[in-house]
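Checklist before submission:
- one chain only
- standard amino acids only
- sequence pasted in full

Submission:
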Amino acid sequence: MDFEVIVSYLPLYIKAFMLTIKIGWIGIALSLGIGVFCAFVLHFRIPVLSAIVKVYVELFRNTPLLVQLFFVYFGLPKIGISISAEACGAIGLGLLGGSYMTESFRSGLDAVPVSQTESALALGMRKGQLFSNVILPQAVTLSVPAVVANLIFLLKETSVFSAISLMDLMFTAKDLIGLYYNTTECLFMLVIFYVVMLLPVSILGTVIEKKTRFKMFGD
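Returned file contents:
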């Protein structure tokens, strides 16, 4: 292990890390928005939209992100739609993540006991109050573990961005290995930067899950 090599490569990895974080979290924000909207559509069984959402979820959950990125980055220009590699990465990650987030939020909404809904209505709550004060808080709490798992999964999926020539962590590592053959040092730094990116999310997710579970169940 040559630490002088590690120090010399550090600025390149930091730049790649910042790009990976930027695109990753833009994609995650997009996936959360898509997931919440689609979960509501499925939960309330909105005509036509429910069928469209089901097709979207099955399509994107059952195809690899790499294939989706290739379709957006290389396929869309064939019909006159050209977008940057960064936008392609964020959109691809958002669409993939949205399909997983949809199921996470939908399962949370569906897991709220019907008896609580009936009790709230019997007490005279309007539907808007029922949803905001009874259903939504519990659905969010129940969805936390799955959402956190999806966040970690999506951040790890950023490793395929190198396939569309984005200078992310994986691209930087492969490029430096190809140029200088310092495989051990490059892979070591790659692992370290992914740990730095993922470990805080994992720890924060565990803390949030414990707090929300305690508020809901008291254990």
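Reviewer check: The chain has eight helices and no strands.
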